Amino acid sequence: MIKKIALIGFLLVSILDIIGIAFKIESLIYLFKPLILLSLLFLYSNSVVDRNKWYSTALVFSFFGDVFLIYSGDFTFKAGLISFLVAHILFISIVIKRIQKASFLKALLAAIPFFIVLTGLIFLIKNALNELLVPVVIYGITISIFGMVSLLDYSTKKTKESLWMLFGAIVFMISDSILAINKFYESSLFFEIIVMITYVSAQYLIYKSMVCEQVEEAELKSFAN
User: Fold this and answer.
1) How many CB atoms lie within 10 A of CB 76?
2) Entry's InterPro entries (predicted)?
């Protein structure tokens, strides 16, 4: 029952924030955007028995990233970038621990599509980045690595948890790519809406992966007994 209420709460605050963006209602954005990750953390806490501390910490850093990015300016953008950078490093560490077998060739092949997208994106927005070029490139490399290890994990195991994580990584990269285009290339209200829809979707997909991981572990233990 609590899990259903938590899921409804997560969906509700996400929708209200998107409405705030679509209709430029700042009060809705300031009120509900910080609640998105807090509600997801509450949902996760009520979906599993043993919480993954690294994932919980990643959600906390994502929360701070959301708060910083509410405000305009280079300082808050950098602070938000750093917060999400830490979150992605934690996501990467979670996925790396899942990978069982991987050759250098498989890792290389998994990296190619994500780094092609990153290279194209940087080429598109580089003239507007100025002093933000290095931080954005570092962040872009990090999220590309997140996509790479997620694809590598799925290619070796093909489990539900690895599939959800791969979808989450891909949608996260789509969201951040559109955000970068919106900020540094061509600003559009449509882009802002799509950024938030894909961001919320990505966070939920990663949550699904973490829940599936614990379910699959419980099933294996039950089968072993």
Assistant:
1) 14
2) TMEM86B-like
Helices 160-184 and 74-98: crossing angle in degrees, nearest 10, is 160
Question: b/e map of 25-50 (b: 16 or more CB within 10 Å)?
Answer: eeebbeebbbbbbbbbbbbbeebbee
Record the tokens describing residue 197, joined without a space. 């829809």
Secondary structure (H, E, C), the chain: CHHHHHHHHHHHHHHHHHHHHHCCCHHHHHHHHHHHHHHHHHHHHCCCCCCCHHHHHHHHHHHHHHHHHHCCCHHHHHHHHHHHHHHHHHHHHHHHHHCCCCCHHHHHHHHHHHHHHHHHHHHHHHHHHHHHHHHHHHHHHHHHHHHHHHHHHHHHHCCHHHHHHHHHHHHHHHHHHHHHHHHHCCCCHHHHHHHHHHHHHHHHHHHHHHHHHHHHHHHHHHHHC
Encode pLDDT of 70-108 as tens digits: 998 889 999 999 999 999 999 999 999 999 888 889 999
